[in-house]
Specification:
Strand content: 15-25%
Number of helices: 10
Number of strands: 8
Distance between the termini: 24 Å
Largest sheet: 8 strands, parallel, barrel
Strand order of the largest sheet: 1-2-3-4-5-6-7-8
Order of helices and strands: HEEHEHEHHEHEHEHHEH
Shape: globular
Length: about 290
């Protein structure tokens, strides 16, 4: 399977697109076949979005790869597993031929939810990046030698809506820990991206060279929105303009700004279903 960073490096200036995917609330492999309409470079399988029990991201990524032939990425959240469980799952992913992972924390539980389920957080996200990097060097979380080193391409997350100096420092730590690329939640104002890049160069003393896949959501009038949508864009959507049309326009702005990595989020409908056809309409405008 092609590593995300290899594809990005050899793309010769072309866009590289990761498309978000929600695993089903069932164990039926056929439920993942609808992702096959997406012509993105990678299908990025989310980890239990909505804090609901869904098909395991590793198993779902492997199933997509086997049933559609597409390259995949699986997400792992530090919230739900201890260190042994995390590294066992990673070894299983390696056994399945999966080489691309994104590390995240996972949304925190509300007080009501915490009465039914407990967070683990044995690793911080940066700590898990470090641990996977050590596995690539042949060591487990205790520093004990594995019988064979892993070969993961490690992704991490970047949040443009947090304090910029704090986020720059966090990105630096994740890169030092072994992160190979970043994904960013959907944005609707490219000025946010530029402010972050300017802050990074000012604080670090050099531009950010690690590949970043900047978030682009295809909106739905009645769907779930990630990030802060400008009021004018919301009015256009309420007035009947399609989310695919808005996203296609944003995509052209991304391209004009020199962006080469896109993290595409299909419409999230109520109940968590995704409209992959609408996302594909956006991809067909490229």
């Amino acid at each position: 399977m092609a590593k995300v960073t290899d594809t990005y490096t050899t793309s010769q200036g072309k866009l590289v697109i990761l498309c978000d995917c929600t695993p089903p609330r069932s164990g039926d492999p056929a439920a993942l076949d609808r992702v096959g309409v997406i012509s993105a470079d990678y299908i990025c399988v989310a980890y239990n979005p909505g804090k609901l029990a869904r098909a395991d991201s590793v198993a779902a990524a492997f199933t997509i790869k086997e049933r559609t032939g597409k390259d995949v990425i699986f997400n792992m959240a530090t919230r739900d597993m201890n260190k042994i469980a995390m590294q066992s799952r990673l070894l299983g992913a390696q056994m399945m031929g999966l080489s691309n992972v994104v590390v995240l924390q996972g949304d925190g539980f509300t007080e009501t939810e915490a009465a039914q389920v407990k967070a683990v957080d044995d690793f911080t996200p940066t700590g898990l990046v470090t641990a996977i990097s050590s596995m690539n060097d042949g060591l487990d979380y205790r520093g004990t030698k594995l019988r064979g080193a892993t070969d993961f391409c490690i992704g991490a997350t970047l949040d443009l809506e947090r304090d910029l100096e704090r986020e720059v420092n966090l990105v630096q730590r994740k890169i030092a820990a072994g992160a190979h690329y970043f994904i960013v939640q959907p944005m609707y104002d490219l000025a946010l991206r530029q402010r972050f890049l300017d802050a990074y160069e000012k604080l670090v003393g050099e531009p950010l060279t690690t590949p970043v896949f900047w978030g682009l959501q295809v909106l739905d009038k009645d769907g779930i929105v990630l990030g802060s949508v400008p009021s004018q864009m919301r009015q256009e959507l309420d007035g009947g303009r399609s989310g695919s049309d808005i996203a296609s326009e944003l995509l052209q702005r991304y391209v004009s700004a020199g962006i080469r990595g896109i993290y595409l989020v299909p419409p999230i409908l109520r109940g968590g279903a995704r409209d992959y056809d609408a996302a594909q309409q956006v991809l067909e405008t490229i």
